[in-house]
């Protein structure tokens, strides 16, 4: 199956003590079709989430903005902006506000413009706190998705308002399927797992978010090493048993040529970074996507310096996890997703033949294939219609091809029909 991603852009952000930073996009993306995946580190030893909770959104058609409330300390990291083909994946974006109100628990619901098939849709979201707060039950959100709504769920509503943006991405043509799974931790649990419908782990990644009753600034109750295990289950582990907490997974399995590299991130109490060698990826279509929100790790600490990691590719064969300080050990998981490229071009035409040489031409059902002329690489195939003999064949290459039609079964036998130096048409829209 041909891919569904038109571009991936990696941008480094570092507001250097400012409350926000705006970055220019460089790949001509249509931002309405984009989903940003974000991880970062923080220089803050404070428990104040206003310094390191960040909202990420597109303020206009050519830029992306990182925004926090407190312009104190520093927060730096990477955004991977994944642009989907709108003919294959529908992206719905929007803003949300969790009000500062005496409600516990608090569930903020936003109606989607279009209903989604939840077996083919997932969501990521980013947000900032309006006020200074360190209590996890007030600034930790768990994100949900129903057929008609996005939801943001937290325990304590009167600590601070939260302002953010969500990104729902839904497969329209079968490029990926999605499962949702929630793990619940009682006050005595540190490790939980549950089975899922089996997936191909080499073609699947997860994203997760956390709801907690942790009425303190302690990271160890509410941050996790979360992962997909062997394609048959999800698992999450925290450092210390304590507050009731739930972690919700979206498990995304691709059915096109997308591949995923997984591995452990392990930082000792003296390590600032962990480098892992991976099978080579095309960095134009690859993204380092953490399994947990922001890049949080399992840590036995109260400090964001130790528990937040920026995950990013340093080359086509290396992925790095980097934090600002190393007072305690940290454990987590990297995921490098190499997306399959969406086609930008197509061939269209008709195929007909004479059943016997004296008969008139009639439409036929047969296979049409396209190959790059310069390399001979196979680029795709299509089947012509028996009604009119029309075919539509997509390719990712803009240059010259040779296109062949196979002789259909039945009737007179003919040699293969081929055309050389054929240049495809650009796919319009999106």
Structural commentary:
The chain has two domains: 5-338, no CATH class; 345-426, Sandwich (Immunoglobulin-like), CATH 2.60.40. It is 2% helix and 50% strand. The protein is built from two helices and 34 strands. The chain has helices at 136-139, 304-307; strands at 5-13, 20-24, 34-42, 55-60, 63-67, 75-84, 89-98, 106-111, 121-129, 142-145, 149-154, 162-171, 176-185, 191-195, 204-212, 225-229, 233-237, 245-254, 259-267, 273-277, 286-288, 298-299, 310-315, 318-322, 330-338, 345-350, 352-353, 362-363, 367-372, 378-383, 390-395, 401-405, 417-422, 425-426. Strands 19, 21, 22 and 25 form a four-stranded antiparallel β-sheet that branches. The chain has a four-stranded antiparallel β-sheet with strand order 30-29-32-33, with no helix packed on it. It has a three-stranded antiparallel β-sheet with strand order 1-6-3. A hairpin with a 3-residue loop joins strand 16 and strand 17. The longest helix is centred in the N-terminal third of the chain and has 4 residues, at 136-139.
Helix content: under 10%
The total tally of domains equals 2
The count of helical stretches stands at 2
Spans of at least 5 consecutive residues with low confidence = none
Give the tally of β-strands.
34
Strand proportion:
over 45%
What's the mean pLDDT score? 94
Helix/strand-derived category reads mainly beta
End-to-end distance? 20 Å
Rg measurement, Å: 25 Å
Oligomer: single chain
Major β-sheet annotation:
4 strands, antiparallel
Q: In one word, what is the shape?
A: elongated
């Amino acid at each position: 199956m041909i891919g569904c991603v038109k571009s991936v852009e990696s941008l480094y952000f570092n507001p250097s003590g400012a409350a926000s930073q705006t970055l220019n996009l460089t790949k001509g993306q249509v931002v309405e079709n984009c989903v940003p995946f974000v991880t970062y580190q923080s220089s803050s030893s404070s428990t104040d989430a206003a310094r390191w909770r960040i909202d990420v959104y597109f303020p206009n058609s050519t830029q992306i903005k990182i925004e926090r409330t407190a312009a104190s300390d520093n927060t730096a990291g990477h955004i991977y902006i994944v642009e989907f083909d709108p003919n294959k994946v529908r992206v719905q974006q929007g803003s949300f506000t969790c009000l500062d109100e005496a409600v516990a628990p608090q569930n903020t619901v936003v109606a989607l413009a279009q209903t989604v098939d939840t077996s083919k849709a997932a969501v990521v979201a980013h947000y900032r706190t309006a006020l200074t707060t360190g209590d996890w039950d007030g600034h930790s959100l768990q994100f949900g998705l129903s057929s008609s709504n996005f939801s943001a769920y937290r325990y304590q509503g009167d600590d601070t308002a939260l302002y953010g943006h969500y990104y729902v991405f839904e497969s329209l043509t079968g490029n990926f399927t999605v499962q949702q799974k929630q793990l619940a931790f009682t006050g005595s649990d540190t490790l939980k797992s549950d089975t899922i419908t089996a997936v191909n782990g080499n073609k699947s990644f997860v994203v997760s978010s956390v709801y907690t009753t942790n009425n303190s600034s302690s990271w160890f109750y509410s941050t996790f090493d979360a992962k997909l295990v062997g394609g048959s289950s999800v698992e999450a582990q925290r450092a210390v048993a304590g507050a009731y907490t739930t972690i919700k997974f979206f498990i995304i399995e691709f059915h096109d040529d997308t591949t995923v590299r997984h591995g452990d991130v392990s930082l000792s109490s003296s390590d600032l970074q962990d480098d892992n060698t991976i099978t080579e990826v095309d960095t134009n279509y690859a993204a380092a996507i953490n399994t947990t929100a922001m890049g949080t790790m399992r840590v036995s600490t109260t400090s964001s310096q130790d528990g937040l990691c920026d995950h990013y590719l340093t080359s086509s064969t290396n992925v790095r996890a980097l934090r600002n300080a190393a007072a305690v050990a940290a454990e987590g998981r990297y995921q490098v997703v190499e997306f399959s490229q969406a086609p930008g071009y197509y061939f269209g035409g008709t195929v007909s033949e004479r059943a016997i040489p004296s008969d008139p031409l009639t439409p036929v059902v047969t296979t049409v294939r396209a190959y790059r002329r310069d390399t001979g690489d196979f680029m795709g195939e299509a089947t012509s219609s028996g009604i009119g003999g029309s075919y539509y064949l997509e390719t990712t290459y803009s240059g010259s091809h040779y296109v062949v039609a196979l002789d259909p079964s039945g009737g007179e036998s003919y040699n293969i029909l081929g055309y050389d130096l054929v240049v495809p048409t650009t796919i319009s829209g999106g």
